[in-house]
Please model this.
Amino acid sequence: MKNVGIIFLFLIFLFTNSQAQELPLKIGVAGLNHGHVPWVLNADKRPEIDIVGIAEPDRELAEKYSKQYGFSMDIVFDSIDEMLEKTKPEAVTGFGTTYQHLEIVQKCAPKGIHVMVEKPLAVSLDHAREMADLARRHKIQLLTNYETTWYPSHQQALEILESEKIGDIRKIVVRDGHRGPKKIGVGPEFLEWLTDPELNGAGALMDFGCYGANLSTWLMDGQRPISVTAVVQQLNPADNPKVEDESTIILTYPSSQTIIEASWNWPIGRKDMEIYGLTGAILVDNGKQLRLRMAEGYDGFSEEKFEMEKRERPLDDPFSMLYAVVRGQITLPNDDLSGLENNLIVMEILDAAKESARSGKTVWLDKR
Model:
């Protein structure tokens, strides 16, 4: 009879666990003043995602999005504390200022609530380290979402690198930028803090420099650079009076170099990357297209073009991934683009870049 009881309890566990796997993930949204917030509001239409609470003190802003996306104002609260207490989310997504990311983790981690924030992880390395300590101590997932994480072209580039077809990396060039937040017409609530050095940590250096730091760390197998050198300028003070809008960051590694170009001054928007190896180069033109050039002769090359569709679920977008991670369906590698270890190095790079730009000197990172 004892065995029958054990089997019965095991079957109940399996049934309950199966039901839990199928239940939608209860998500809280901390802030609505980030220009990427439509990403999560659209995700709420999926069967596996359920936004149960929103923390946003600006009622006018919340009502605007409520009318646009159809959520009830009953789930909007003035503070994160009230939202957590009343709605009990399983995970919280940060769509406020970058400065608020630390507060989100401070509130969520002790309650065992997982957190995903928009890039970059934090406004400073000090904030990032405190967030990481809380996440580790309370055993929560702390993820950082970048648009470029979901580019199938980047995954294809990594596969080519891992095949050793172009040999060891010698140089990476990452370019991310556009005409500037004001010129592309971001909302006033987003513009207000995106161009504030305290709330965003810097200007273009943080907003777009984080992409290159994230990708370089990933492509370099989680290596920290030896040194960071940055030059910044304020070319459009009328639109960006408080922050730099042009930034170039150089990372040196033992056997390679990365150049990160981050701009709010380009007439066209772009997110592209070049990877140079010993015998060939990978030119990532956009999210879906790349070219592989293999050296031939003195200065010639052959070229193969790749065109890719979306990545397969659950690694096709941040909310599919978040669901799969929280439900235990996947475990992310330590150096994953969204992962904590990668993004701590990103923050170390960005902090060093700000110091280099301020001092006019190369910053050498401490050896571990």
